[in-house]
């Protein structure tokens, strides 16, 4: 059984991590709310909050309205205390993001990549940022298959995959928690966050969404079901270009050919029918540099004619893939900021 050992210092660290996560998730919290959500005693919470106030980590935001008893004091993080560093990689460019504890992007910096050398660009960005800010976590989004702390990319010629231990390298070099994520999964999360803000009653734990990304000659995707990323057994979920079509050719083979709008719409409807029938997402967002926005209405009509009403997803257009990608990585990085405590196996 995995348990925290009894060392007081480690137990205190664990309790602080839980308190920080509650304040991060809720934005603000009272002592009673923290105690209830963490199952830490009210006395311990009071002591640790006092220490966090003294260290300048949190601040008092005033008192709640009284419900007949003593007014509850509300706490929140000082906005400029903790930060995360997120890096969003593309095929030929990269961006570095400075992120606050709420997952908001404070600064965006283009990262020069010479000869496609992403690792050197990341090191330069982090080496310049970490001495200036209290960085608590690193997040990296990357095209390709993400497996643990590694990224697998198919070689330009052939079927072999090139493996890069990027996440492990960053964790070892900087001694910080690192989250590594596929770029389309991060984009789906960013889209989910957008709808969480627009429709806060839905809740992120209920998000069911697919994001389909159209690039020249290929289609890929990121899926969220029940608020969780669908990765598949070997992290290959979303490789839609490998889905056979009616003539037994792969989707990517079709997408490499010149297509009329009618042919393009037919392929999209066929693909969306599979996704709705298997995953039954509430939303399907379509985007990417090669997506034909003018076909969206015809795709929606074709899907409505193909599927029963209860299986239909609401189709959305992702107008700004970069915004959604960056937003998703900012959120993932902020969520990793207080993961410094690990369970000890006894």
Model description:
There is one protein chain. The protein is an alpha+beta fold. The chain has three domains: 2-78, Winged helix-like DNA-binding domain superfamily/Winged helix DNA-binding domain (Arc Repressor Mutant, subunit A, Orthogonal Bundle); 83-185 and 326-335, ATPase, nucleotide binding domain (Nucleotidyltransferase, domain 5, 2-Layer Sandwich), CATH 3.30.420.40; 198-324, Nucleotidyltransferase, domain 5 (2-Layer Sandwich). The protein has ten helices and 18 strands. The chain has helices at residues 8-26, 31-38, 42-54, 118-129, 166-174, 183-198, 251-255, 261-278, 296-306, 321-335; strands at 2-3, 29-30, 58-63, 73-77, 83-89, 94-100, 105-111, 135-142, 145-147, 150-154, 161-164, 178-182, 209-215, 218-225, 228-229, 283-287, 314-318, 344-345. The strands form five sheets. A five-stranded mixed sheet has the order 7-6-5-8-12, with helices on both faces. A hairpin with a 2-residue loop joins strand 9 and strand 10. Helix 1 (8-26) packs across helix 2, helix 2 (31-38) crosses helix 3 and helix 6 packs across helix 10 (321-335). The model is unreliable at 341-346 (pLDDT under 50).
Condensed summary:
The protein has 10 helices and 18 strands.
Number of beta strands? 18
Class from secondary-structure proportions: alpha+beta
Mean pLDDT across residues: 85
**Largest sheet, order of strands side by side?**
7-6-5-8-12
Number of domains: 3
Q: Helix coverage percent of residues?
A: 25-40%
SSE order: EHEHHEEEEEHEEEEHEHEEEHHEHEHE
The CATH topology annotation of the largest domain reads as Nucleotidyltransferase, domain 5
Shape descriptor: globular
CATH architecture title of the largest domain: 2-Layer Sandwich
Q: Report how far the terminal alpha carbons are from each other.
A: 7 Å
The proportion of residues in beta strands is: 25-35%
Provide the low-confidence segments as ranges: 341-346
CATH superfamily of the largest domain: ATPase, nucleotide binding domain
What would you report as the Rg, rounded to the nearest angstrom?
23 Å
Q: Give the number of helices.
A: 10
Q: How is the biggest beta sheet arranged?
A: 5 strands, mixed
């Amino acid at each position: 059984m995995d348990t925290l050992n009894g060392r007081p210092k480690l137990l205190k660290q664990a309790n602080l991590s839980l308190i920080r996560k509650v304040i991060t998730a809720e934005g603000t919290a009272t002592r009673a709310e923290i105690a209830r959500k963490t199952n830490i005693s009210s006395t311990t919470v009071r002591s640790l909050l006092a220490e966090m106030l003294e260290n300048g980590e949190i601040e008092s935001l005033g008192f709640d309205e009284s419900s007949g008893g003593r007014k509850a004091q509300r706490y929140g993080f000082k906005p400029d205390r903790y930060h995360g560093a997120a890096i969003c990689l593309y095929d030929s460019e990269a961006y570095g993001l400075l992120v606050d504890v709420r997952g908001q992007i404070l600064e965006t910096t283009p990262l020069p990549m010479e000869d496609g050398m992403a690792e050197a660009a990341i090191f330069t960005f982090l080496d310049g940022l970490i001495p200036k800010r209290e960085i608590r976590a690193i997040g990296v989004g990357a095209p390709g298959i993400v497996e643990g702390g590694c990224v697998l990319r198919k070689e330009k010629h052939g079927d072999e995959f090139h493996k890069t231990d990027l996440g492990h390298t960053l964790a070892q070099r900087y001694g910080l928690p690192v989250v590594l994520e596929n770029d389309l999964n991060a984009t789906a999360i960013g889209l989910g966050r957008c709808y969480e803000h627009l429709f806060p009653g839905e809740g992120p734990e209920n998000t069911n969404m697919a994001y389909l990304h159209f690039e020249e000659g290929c289609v890929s995707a990121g899926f969220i079901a029940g608020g969780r990323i669908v990765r598949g057994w070997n992290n290959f979920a979303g490789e839609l270009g490998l889905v056979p079509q009616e003539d037994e050719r792969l989707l990517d083979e079709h997408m490499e050919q010149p297509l009329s709008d009618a042919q393009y719409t037919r392929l999209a409807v066929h693909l969306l029918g599979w996704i709705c029938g298997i995953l039954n997402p509430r939303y399907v967002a379509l985007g990417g540099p090669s997506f034909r926005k003018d076909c969206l209405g015809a795709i929606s009509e074709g899907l409505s004619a193909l599927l029963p009403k209860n299986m239909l997803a609401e189709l959305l257009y992702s107008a700004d893939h970069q915004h959604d990608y960056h937003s998703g990585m900012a959120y993932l990085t902020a969520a990793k900021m207080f993961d410094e405590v690990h369970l000890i196996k006894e």
